[in-house]
Structures are given as C-alpha cells and as structure tokens.
Amino acid sequence: MTDEYIRHQGKVERIENQKIYVRISQKAACSDCHAAVVCLASDKKEKIIEVNDNSGCFDLQEDVLVSVRQSNGFFAVFIAYVLPLLIVILAVVTGVSVSGSEVVGGFAGLATLLPYYLIIYLMRDKLKKKFIFSLSKITEPTFNQQM
User: Fold this and answer.
1) Average of pLDDT values for 86-92?
2) What number is the average pLDDT over the span 52-60?
3) Do residues 25 and 44 lie in contact, with contact meaning Cβ atoms separated by under 8 Å?
C-alpha cells in the first residue's frame, strides 16, 4: 500500500545547522466556496515548517515543495483535536456525575486542557521525530496549489 502525501508550496526563509525553515501559505480546502466569506474555515494562514536537510542543494528565497505523509497529518489531527475533545467530554461527564453541578463539570473539562497541552509541549522533541517533512525543488514556477 503506497502512502499518499500532503504537499504545500513554500519559500525557503532561512537555513541554519542543516535545518531549513520554509514559509508555507496554508489555505482551507473550501476557499473557493461561495460561502467562504462567512465561514470560519476559509482562512489563510502562513506557517514556518522546519525541515532537516543536509543536502545543501536549497537556497534562500527558493520556491520548494514541502511534503509529509498523509497518515502523519491524520495523526496530528488526532493528537491536536480529537483526543483532547474526548478527554474534555469525559471530564465534563465525570465532573457532573460526581458533583451534580454542570458548572463543576464545565470547569473540570476546561481544567484537563492545560495539563494535556503541557504534556504535548513537553513531548515536542519526540513528536518532531514522528513528523518527517521532506523538501523537493519545484520544476514548474506556476505550481501554486495544494496537491
């Protein structure tokens, strides 16, 4: 089974110690939708992606293609959104069950987020090893969409 890739066009911002920092413009998939004006999902964000590379074949301000396995993207969504949502729901239900108060349940749910994201932050080096980005040169200068 071949793994598909998520690809974004970017520009090399800086190169330091065999690490290349690439600026990508992240566009929502529904940016061409007519309802995009009122939809919160139709945003455009710029991100800096850190890519390990010791090839020495990339230059500053060069247009490049950043790739990551699609399965890594799904794992990132699970870690960042799905798992904390499940934890919050569990904490709210537990808080309401134990105390009988929805306010306590709500605070219990919110209180679980701080330690969760603190743990994610402390594990950032381990997670960086899991998410491996690769770079390639762009052969066509007109390429400007996500594949």
Assistant:
1) 96
2) 82
3) yes
Instruction: Return the HEC string of the chain.
Output: CCCCEEEEEEEEEEEECCEEEEEEEEECCCCCCHHHHCCCCCCEEEEEEEEECCCCCCCCCCEEEEEEEHHHHHHHHHHHHHHHHHHHHHHHHHHHHHHCCHHHHHHHHHHCHHHHHHHHHHCHHHHHHHCCCEEEECCCCCCCCCC
pTM above threshold 0.70: no
Mean pLDDT of the chain: 81
d(CA 15, CA 21): 6
Q: Spell out the domain ranges in the chain.
A: 5-137
Reply yes or no on whether the pLDDT at 141 is more than 60: no
